[in-house]
Design goal:
Number of helices: 3
Helix content: over 70%
Strand content: under 5%
Structural class: mainly alpha
Order of helices and strands: HHH
Amino acid sequence: MTVTVAGFNLQKIAIIVCLGIAAIKSTLVLFYFMHLRYEQRLVIKLLIPIVIATLAIFIGLTFSDVITR
């Protein structure tokens, strides 16, 4: 799926599509391969905000680095 989308000329929405695909892939890895699907709901409710905050920090730092170049 990632390789197929890379072949399209999506221009400005390409980053959104790529991040969406990455989010779907990471969700599949977390829930099925790391067996979080069978964990208690409290663990999932604590894990999701932490992951979103960490992702926001990484994206923010990356964009701030690109802007200051």
